[in-house]
Amino acid sequence: MRYSVIGTMLALLSIFLLVSCNGAQQSQATDLSLAGSWELVDDSPSLGCFSELKFLDNPVSKRDPVSVHETTGDTTKIWIGEYEMEGNDIRVMLHEPQADPFIMTPDYNGNELKLQYEWNQANLVCSYKISSDSHSDPSEAQSENNSVIDNAQTPPLTDEEILMGPPGRFADPNYDAKTVEEALDQLSNDMTADEYMEELLLLLAEDYRTYVTTFNNFDTGIKVDNERPDGGITLPPSKKLHISILLDASGSMGSKIKGISKMDSAKEAIQSFSEKLPENAEVSVRVYGHKGSGSQKDKELSCKSTEEIFQGRGDQADQIKTVLESVNPAGWTPIANALDLVKEDIDPETTDSVVYVVSDGIETCGGDPVKVAKELNQSKVKTVVNIIGFDVDHEGQKLLRQVAVSGGGEFTSADDDESLKKILDKAYEKLRGEWVRWKEEGEGDANTQKEKKQGELNVTREVMQKYAVQEYDHLQAALKYLETKYGKSFPRHEIYMMSTNRKNFLWQYARDKGAELYKEVTNNGKQVYEDIKEEGDKNIEDLNQKKNNN
Fold first, then answer.
1. Backbone angles phi and psi of 296, in degrees to 5
2. Cα 404 from chain centre
3. Higher pLDDT, 165 or 368
4. Chain centre distance of CA 27
C-alpha cells in the first residue's frame, strides 16, 4: 500500500451546526462529516457550481486538503488546495492553479449538503450529495431534533493528491541539519513507525506541487499555424493582387522566328504563364496596336488602339486562350497609351499590382512610356512594370530597359518562344516558392516546438527526481540521528523501508509521467512534421508537373 503524507485520511472532521427546534427551542450543535467526495445534484439552485468537491482530512494539521472540479461543457478543470473551518464556515484556499480564498457557508439537511459561496463573481447556492463511492454505511436518521451523522469514508488518494500535499517545515531551501535535529529532539520516543514517518515528513517532505501541476496541465499538442498557399497557389485573404499582361499586337509581331510567328509564341507563353497564377488573383489581359496597319494613314487609328480583352481571376485562366485567338498583328506600337489605360483595369482596393509588357519593339506613337511607367509605380496602388523584350535589337533594349527601371521592374530580353516561356516562368517560380517556404518553415516550427516541450519535460522530471533523492537523504540522516539517540527501541528498519518506498514512488512517478508526456509530444511533433511535409511535397510536385507539361 502506497504511503500517504497525511496518513490513511480516515478521521472524520466535525463541525457544529445550529438546528432550530419548533422555532423556540435552544439550538443544538451537531456533527457534520465533510470528508469524502460530494457530487452536484441535478436540480441544484444555481448555475456555475463546482461539479464535484473532495474534502480530505489531515489529522495532524489544522488545514486539510481539498480538490474541486469546475466543469464547463465537456471540459473539467481540477483545482487543488486546502480548507479550514472558521466557526461554522469553510474557508477554501486554492493554489494549484492559484485563486483568491473564499468562504463556503454550509447547510446540512438530511442527505444533502447545501453550500453558499461566491465564484467567478457570482453568488451561488449549490446542493451536493455524498458520492456512492464515499459511503461505508448509509446515513441513519436520529431524533427529529438532530442532524443526520454521515459515516462517509475518505476514498483512496490518487498519486497526484499524495504529491500535492504541503511541504515539510524544512523543505528546500529551509533545510538545516542542526535545526532539524533540534526538532527531532521534540518527538516522543514511543511512537509507531507510521507515526514517526508522518512526523518526519511534516519536517522534511519536499514541495512537489509545481512539478505535478506542470505534468497535469502540460499541453503535448504541436500547432503550426503558418499561412498556407491554398489550392494550386492562392493568396492570403489580406492580399489582393492584380496582374496585368500587355501584349504588343503591332505588325512586326507577325514576323517569324524558327518558323513560328512572334505573336503565336507570345500567345502560348502568356497562356502557359496565366495558368500558373494564384487562383484568387485578379488578372487582366490588354492588347495594343491591334487595329489599322503599319501604314502612315492608319497611324492615328492604330496608336489609339488598346483594349482590355480579359478581366477575371487566376482560376479562370483557361478563358485567356480563347480571347487571344482573335488577336492578330496589325499596326503601330502605342506602349505609353496602353500603360496609361491599364490604370483603369486595376481595382482601387488592390494591395499589389504587377504589369508584364510583352513587346518586340519600342514606342512608335510618340508617347512617353518612361513617364507613364513612373506614374504607375508612384500611384496609390503601387504598380511594378516589367518589360519582356521579344527579339528586340540593341537600341530597342536600351529604351525598353528605361521603361522597366522607371516602373520599378525589370527588363528581360527573349530571342525565341522558349526563352520567352522561361522568362515568364521566373515569375511563376516566385509563386511556387511560397509552397517551398511554407513547407520548410512549418517543418522547422514543428521540430522547434517539439524539442522545446521535450526539454521542459526533461527539466521537470530531473528536478523532481533530484528533490526525491534529496528528501530521501534528509530522511536517512534523521533516521541515523534518532537511532543513535534511541537505540534498538527505535523502529529504524520499518521507517527505512517506508522512506525507500516513498523515494521509489516519487522517482518512478516523475520518470513515468515524464516519459508518457514526452512520448505524446514526440508522436504529435512527428505527425505534424510528416503532415506538413506530405502536403508541401505534394503541392510542389503538382506545380512542377504543370510547369514541365507546358
1. -65, -35
2. 44
3. 368
4. 57
